[in-house]
Amino acid sequence: MIMAENDKLLGVHIAEDDDAQRLRVWWKKNGMGIVAGVAIGILGVGGFKGWQVYTENRALSASDVFQEMLAYDESGAIERASNSAQILIKDYRATPYGDLAYLMIAKLAKQKGDLSNAMEALTNVMTKSKDPAMGQLARLRLSQVKLLAGDLERAHELATTDDVGGFESEFSEVLGDVLLAQHKYSDAAEAFDRALQALAPASSSRALLTSKRNYARSVGNNQ
Question: Which domain holds residue 59?
Answer without folding.
Answer: 2-221
